[in-house]
Amino acid sequence: MATLPELRAERIKKLELLKEAGMDAYPVTTPSRIDIADAAAKFATLTRSKKKIALSGRIMSVRGQGALMFFDLSDGTGTFQGMLKKGETDEQVMELFAKTIDRGDFIWVKGTPFLTKTKAKTILVTEWTMLSKSLRPLPDKWAGLQDVEERFRRRYLDTLMADDVRERFIMRSRMVSALREFLDGAGYLEVETAMLQSHAGGATAEPFTTHHNALDIDLYLRIAPELFLKRLLVGGFPKVYEIGRNFRNEGIDVTHNPEFTMLEFYASYADAREMRAVTEKLFAHVAKKLFGKTKVTIGETAYDFKKSFATISFYDLLRRYALVSDPENARIEDLRLAAEQFGIEVEKGAPREKILDDIYKKTCRPKLLQPTFVVDYPVNYLPLAKRSPQDPALVDAFQLVVGGIEIVKAFSELNDPIDQAQRFETQDARRKEGDREAQTSDQEFLEAMEYGMPPAGGVGIGIERLALFFLGEHNIREVILFPTMRPRE
């Protein structure tokens, strides 16, 4: 079997043959053509007219030689068979095709459409020209890319060779369009906020740091757009949303990638209860757009998105699945011991809320397959959320877990600047104690709040996790076109 350098050298020789024949292998302009999908849809009309048509695309296979050659041409809208036949195709046209064409090349062809004896829609080629000569062979048509790491590194080949992978990302795009359609229809305004921020706020996460030379200041890639979106509520925009990238300097696993897409939306005068209702409607809308119905089976589990979602408190989950009898009052030493018994590594200086959350993620969350709102979190767990009117030690917040994955985090937004300042102080103290993910005080945000922020409800949805659920995948890298990878050595 020829090596890659040998195959590449052969293709470069073919480039020279094209030059000798006066054909540019990488022309600026593509001659007029129609999409292959249109050619297939209008095939009967085109064949009756007996007029020549022109198509462009990538050659995915070549068959036959000598007097009769077949090839499959794909342009992303569909695939069409091409044929060159001795006696009907000019001999020089056929000869150059036979000597220079490889699987993977992009070409333009012109000819007459007809139906073969096997009922295959085909174009009898009378003219052709190279559009882009490929220098490396495509993966085997049937085996594709077998190495998972190579699939992610060379996603362009993964989507080219695997129809199901390409369709997955088309579905993801349709899902995002459905989210926009829902929010636009509900009166939300799409906005864009800063990606480079002087304070990495709005979430509990460690940021990436960079430096701006002209201003000679450190800046952070945003971990969340929340604090800027809330400024817009102060600024008179009653409903806003943003779909954009976030960056968190964290580990990589089946549900985490350092760079990811987030949807956050905020509504003035709403609260967590109202946003739960909005979330239910949003999920039903997306399911209908993706599958044409609200009752769907994903993997082996059936879901009915017309039904109201279950609701359970954070502490009740810990009691039920982690067997922590009194999570509200348990000593931090006892929580550390419980975590270790579940095989959880507890970081030095981790606060009780972090330990409780780690226990919850390990023992409780995987049990929640049907859509479930988890409510009533401890106040220091979500420092940007309003306290619960029933218990000031809790916040009026919820997370939505589906299929064992946390997809939504939301709450009644804290709009009391004095309470917010005190929460920030607590976070600052934790950061000094070694908690790198603790939030930092943002004085400019506090200043904006002091001008008056309306009561509001806010929702954050991880787009990749939503895609994981709706597309039935189990690894976040399967729904990110170009996931973060360690460079090749």
Automatic annotation (TrEMBL):
The lineage of its organism: Bacteria, Candidatus Yonathiibacteriota. Binds 3 Mg(2+) ions per subunit. NCBIfam families: lysS_bact (TIGR00499), PRK00484.1 (NF001756). It comes from the Bacteria. Mg(2+) 1 binds at residue 406. Its main location: cytoplasm. Its EC number is 6.1.1.6. GO terms for cellular component: cytosol. Its cofactor is Mg(2+). InterPro entries: Aa-tRNA-synt_II, aa-tRNA-synth_II, aa-tRNA-synth_II/BPL/LPL, Lys-tRNA-ligase_II, Lys-tRNA-ligase_II_N, Lys-tRNA-synth_II_C, NA-bd_OB-fold, NA-bd_OB_tRNA. One of its GO terms (molecular function) is tRNA binding. It catalyses: tRNA(Lys) + L-lysine + ATP = L-lysyl-tRNA(Lys) + AMP + diphosphate. It is an enzyme of class 6 (ligase). One of its GO terms (biological process) is lysyl-tRNA aminoacylation. This is Lysine--tRNA ligase. PROSITE patterns: AA_TRNA_LIGASE_II. Residues 169-487 form the Aminoacyl-transfer RNA synthetases class-II family profile domain. It comes from Candidatus Yonathbacteria bacterium RIFOXYD1_FULL_52_36. It is found in: Cytoplasm. The keyword Metal-binding applies. Homodimer. Mg(2+) 2 binds at residue 406. Keywords: Aminoacyl-tRNA synthetase, ATP-binding, Cytoplasm, Ligase, Magnesium, Metal-binding, Nucleotide-binding, Protein biosynthesis. Belongs to the class-II aminoacyl-tRNA synthetase family. The keyword Ligase applies.
